[in-house]
Amino acid sequence: MGTPYEKDVVAWAEEQAALLRAGKLASIDIEHIAEEIEDVGKSEQREFASRMAVLLAHLLKWKWQPERRGASWRTTIGVQREAIGRRLRRTPSLKPMLDDADWIGDMWGDARQQAANEMQSGFSGVPEVCPWSMSQVLDADFLPG
Prior knowledge:
mainly alpha, 5 helices, 0% strand, elongated
């Protein structure tokens, strides 16, 4: 084998792709290829989770800091909703996560932490559990409060 996976993953990936295209299956690094394929799915899940946490954080701030509402927050909410919608259309296997109470709880926790880092008033009155359904959260017309 040419470039080791651990030494230069980009060069390794190019070599593996060339071997696959050439039909040289006996020469491919099956274990690392399998890991990379799994990582693609994990990367999609991480991006989805990150966008949901940003969206939830901005909805949280919108609700609990009405005096600071502005075009920037509204824009961020819209951009995140659009990006999440695209991600769900391109990767429909992510949709079940929106029904997973543990996953939603994790996203809410991340959102609360993000918002706490920006809010001067802290968590006063902010519930421990997300007060909105995921369909509300993703609804382009929904703004809490």
